[in-house]
Structures are given as C-alpha cells and as structure tokens.
Amino acid sequence: MSEILPRRMAAEIEGDFVVFVIGMRINKPWKLHQWLPVFLAMPRMLKELERRPESGFLGAVSGGLLIVQYWRSFEHLEAYARSRDHLHWPAWVAFNKRTGRSRGDVGIWHETYLVRAGEYEAIYSGMPRHGLGRAGTLVPATGQRDSARGRAGRPAAPLQPAASPGTAGAGAVPAPGGG
Length: 179
Fold this sequence. Notes:
There is one protein chain. It contains five helices and seven strands; from the N terminus they run ββαββααββαβα. Mean pLDDT is 88; it is low at 169-173. The chain has helices at 32-50, 74-82, 88-99, 132-135, 148-151; strands at 5-12, 17-26, 57-62, 66-71, 106-115, 123-127, 137-140. By secondary structure, it is of the alpha+beta class. Helix 1 runs antiparallel to helix 3. The chain has a four-stranded antiparallel β-sheet. A three-stranded antiparallel β-sheet has the order 6-1-7. It folds into two domains: 5-11 and 118-151, no CATH class; 17-115, 2-Layer Sandwich (Alpha-Beta Plaits), CATH 3.30.70.100.
C-alpha cells in the first residue's frame, strides 16, 4: 500500500502538460466479444507506457471504465496513438473492424486538455501520491498554495463582508475548492 501523507499537499509539474481522459461504456453487456477486448487492451497499453519514460507518458489514474492520463505534451500523446510499433494502433484498428456495423454495442470516448504551465491546481489531504501529484511533485500546501486561487496562480480576490445573522442571500459564499 502507498504511503499516506498526513498533511495537505499540492501538486506541481514543470511546464505545460496534457490531461487525457478516456473511457468506455458497455451498452450491450451480453455482447462480450465486442467490449471485452476494449476492456482488456487499456491495462496492457498503460504497462507498455510505464516501461517507456521517453514516450512522454507521466502517469495515470484508473477508475474501472475511466482512466485519467497525464502526458508531457500533445505531440507525445499523438505520437503514441499513431505509432504502428506500439499496442494502441493495432487495438484501435481491431476495434474499428470489430464494431464497424455495430457501433452501439460498446462506446469509447476521450477528452484531451492542454494545460499551460501554472494554470491548474490540485490539493491532496491524507492521501498517498495520486493523480497529478504522482505524475509531478507534491509540495506542502502552505503560503500561496494554501488556497485554490493561490495554487492556480491567480491574484488574491478582494474579501467580501460576511452575511449578518438573519439576512438571506447577503455576504460571501465560500468558493468551491477553497482548500
């Protein structure tokens, strides 16, 4: 089991990076021959990537049918996806052949986010190294890193007066992710 860090930590990563979220949806569970190959392919690809640090793959978090991946750049991600010498390309070709006339049996999707240096924030409390904190570096969430705004590199927001007792809707509402 990973070491639990019993304090608030923030993630830092040098330079720009990419967050790639990929998942599948089993629409017809009885069509095992359609979705099982997709389900089994991703863990093999992740193991391949972990063995190749030069690929630009920084790490991943898996949650069953959803995986969040971290990449050094879009070009690294694209190079892996299009490489005929690695596991993704043949799996993608096989998926398209297998599901060509039955696209509704299993769904696959992905979203790609290009993140500029310093324009992100992440907080971990009582957690092992996880997500971006595992792909990058964990640092104590103190000083500027004590708030979501500070971790995201945003200037301090002006303070707003708190609501007086009995006045509905007046005053400030704490922002989500305030740390």
